[in-house]
Amino acid sequence: MKINEFFRFRLSFGKQLIRLHHTNALFFLFLTVTGFFLFSTVFRSSFPELRVWVKESHIWVGFFSCLPVLFYVPKARKHLHALRKKKPNRMNVYIVAAILITFIGSGLVLTFHRQFPPVVNTWSLFLHDAATWLGVPYVIFHSVTRSKWFKRLTAKAPQKKEIGAPVVIDEKQPLYKRRTVLKMIGSTAIVLAFLPAVIKWVNPSFSLNGSTKPDGNRLSPLPTPDAKSAPPIGGGRRGDFRYYTVTEIPQITNDNFQFRIDGLVDRKASYRWEEFVALSRSVQVSDFHCVTGWSVYDVTWEGIPLKTFLEQAGVQSKANYVKFYSADGVYTDTLSIEQALMSDMLVAVLIDGELITQQNGGPVRLITPKMYAYKSVKWLNRIELIEKEHIGYWEQRGYDKDAWVKSL
């Protein structure tokens, strides 16, 4: 379609469909590119402020991408009727429609995730992932093979055929046509490009070299799990963690481990690893929810209740908030005193009877079960009691200070 026709109001039915198709393709391209940026852990850690803007643009363009679909609905019956004798084209319409509807429906739920319980968000994220890792390769293949460039590449001069003459396979009449071969090559390349990501999505523990990355923390002695932790009384966690960080993951050893409690307290405290691991711990089972939509259920955590630390330190009357620091030197967050004194707030050391891994925020991380995980500070190494509210890392970049998870 010519660019001047793109903005015309009166077009034939066929050109209207072409315009909708091209508009939808532009939206899909933008959402695919921004979606992969949002998925990238490198982009998350390198450009956190820019990531917030990319996320907002992804959401708003996602809303606008509904328009071509809505404009197509009244035309769908006539279009499908015109394709009644073209089964491949008709099937392509159904497949693309399914991909778009899945993206739009799951995207709306994830955008307004606070209005839905975690189980709905989890399924929506699964569908969004499925539409990405299975649908995007199909759309790429469809776009390439339907492009004018591909048609020119596969075009050949028409040849006269003698009726009744035997078919001779030679350079002029090959067993496979150029178009077929190029489609096979293109589809294979797309599958190979996306296959590692698809396998990683299906099996998060998958590694290309077949090995598991060793934990970078070096600590001794290791904590002895409580009888309720090993085996875990929660029965073992259901689901997989997705690991995010805003900077390089710190490596914790006996030499650099230090856990402090200070600020507006009567009794400041500082612990080396040998002292910290000897503290009395309790066990709790809770669910873990990320604001991006995924959850891990029935996690058995073992650690020191945050309330215990605060009571032992003696909270002064001026203290209104509790500020948490990460050993990465960048990440911080805050709870009110009332929130911090809730019985399920935990300074965790073990997960399902094992030391929390470096990748998952270990050896010590905060657990806030009824709040989204951006409150659960990883590599926790300091607790400070403060008078005025501190705005946490992601809250400074647009996240809601109200991190409560909607319950069923």
From TrEMBL:
Full protein name: Oxidoreductase molybdopterin binding domain-containing protein
Disordered: annotated span: 212-232
Pfam families reported for this sequence: Ni_hydr_CYTB (PF01292), Oxidored_molyb (PF00174)
Localisation: Cell membrane
Cellular component annotations (GO), alphabetically ordered: plasma membrane
Membrane topology classification: Multi-pass membrane protein
Native source species: Domibacillus enclensis
GO biological processes: respiratory electron transport chain
Keyword list, A-Z: Cell membrane, Membrane, Transmembrane, Transmembrane helix
GO terms assigned for molecular function: electron transfer activity
Major location (coarse): membrane
TM helices/strands, residue ranges: 25-45, 57-73, 93-113, 125-144, 181-202
Chain ranges of the Cytochrome b561 bacterial/Ni-hydrogenase domain: 14-142
Domain of life: Bacteria
Domain (Oxidoreductase molybdopterin-binding) ranges: 248-394
